[in-house]
Structures are given as C-alpha cells and as structure tokens.
C-alpha cells in the first residue's frame, strides 16, 4: 500500500514540479532568484511560494480525486522538504558555470562535475532538475510513509 501511495505522491509532486518551474514561475523570478542579496532571495522566495502552492494543489487533487489519504502532517513535511531544497538549488540560478562555485554548485564541483558545468551550457539546468527530482522523490516517500493510509477517500 505504501508503494502505491509513494507512486501517486511522486506522480503528483513531479507533474506539479514541472508545471510550477516552467509555467507558473514568472520570468522576473527566473532571472533574479540567483542574484546575491535581498532582491535575489525575495525573488527566490516568491518562486518557491508559488511552487509550493502548485505542489500542494496537486497533492490535494490526488487526495480528492484519487483517494490519496496522506495525513496532513506528512503532506506538510513533504512540501517543506520540497520547498526548502528547491530554494537551496534555485539560489544558484545562473551560477552553475561560475569558476568560484558556491552553494550546491560547490557540491557539484566536489563530485567531479565542474568540467561538464563549464563546457556544456545545458549542464546547470540538468543538474538543477536532477537535484529537484531527487528531493521530490524523498518528499513523496515522506508523504507516503506512516500509518493510517489505508482509509480510502469516499467523497
């Protein structure tokens, strides 16, 4: 049963990730979220707020129409993991190829990816999306784990 809940939560969170990152996110946030200082942080927070609202809507739709009965505390925890890790990655916006990496770009460099990031203009986007989707999987596992999930939504 947990595997089915995980699959449904992962599908809802992944689909809503794509919608939020590519349709809901405004260009102003996309170009500003990686800038240092208050303006960059505020733009990233605005994007993460709409991202999280989109994912929450998807989880609610799965609850309402698929009977995905995730306890509220698990849904909130899953959304918090997704939102927090999304913010961490998106503060790197536009900086994946920087010669002096910071944040998770430093992690990417430490794991042997700096050459790829310097050479391939698509590498930063791919690393960003892989980071997000890995954490979405962890968020789905958090949502699906736990007891009391076998009650179908009969409304």
Description:
- By secondary structure, the chain is mostly helical.
- It has seven helices and no strands.
- Helix 1 crosses helix 3 and helix 4 runs antiparallel to helix 7.
- It is globular and about 50 Å long.
Radius of gyration: 17 Å
- The SS-based structural class is mainly alpha
Distance between the termini: 20 Å
Oligomeric status: single chain
Large-scale geometry = globular
Largest sheet: none
Q: Report helical residue fraction.
A: over 70%
Which spans have pLDDT < 50 for at least 5 consecutive residues? none
How many helices? 7
Count of strand segments: 0
Percent strand equals under 5%
Summarize the structure.
With 155 residues, the protein is mainly alpha-helical.
SSE inventory with pairings:
Layout: H1 2-24, H2 27-32, H3 37-66, H4 72-90, H5 103-110, H6 114-119, H7 123-144
Key phrases:
7 helices, globular
